Amino acid sequence: MKKTLLLCASLLAAGAAQAQAAGYTIDPTHTFVTFEVTHFGTSTNRGRFDKKSGSITFDRAGRSGKVDISIETGSVNTGTAAFDKHLQSKDFFDSEAHPTVRFVGERFSFEGDKVSEVAGTLTLLGKTQPVTLKAVRFNCFDHPRLKREVCGGDFETTIQRSQWGMGYGIPAIPDAVKLVIQVEAVRQ
Hints:
Blueprint: H1 2-19, E1 22-26, E2 32-39, E3 43-49, E4 52-59, E5 64-72, E6 76-77, H2 81-88, E7 100-111, E8 114-124, E9 127-143, E10 148-160, E11 176-187
Antiparallel strand pairs: 1-4, 1-11, 2-3, 2-11, 3-6, 4-5, 5-7, 7-8, 8-9, 9-10, 10-11
């Protein structure tokens, strides 16, 4: 009898813990993926990706979650059509052969009740490498118009693009690329 009660209590506790996780869908109108790289040591080239999608599962009480973001490489936008076309070529993103970049993060770190980092993997040009995104800002709020909870923040990291096989122009165009993912996701 004692074993049965313990088993039932364990199952109830596990069910309650899982019930804390909530699903969120990335809001593409409030989510931006940008990059920065210096150009021949003079200025900073910046660009963004206009098409992105994804989901987040977040368990505040369990201090865990999962982020899954896909970015369409053909949607790169620097404001200069010729530069965008070069970035889509085999020299950089090879958009025809590799139409998406994907970040999957499953290890959340917290400072207090705020997410401070999300560690996971970045798949680019068919290669997957570990990446940790540092939260510069994180918050959840009740959206007055949507009448739903929205969570998000600004997350950033610097990668060495050569780790994914993107070596064009190094060292004149540096290996280090700063990535910034500004994300807002709506609870479903």
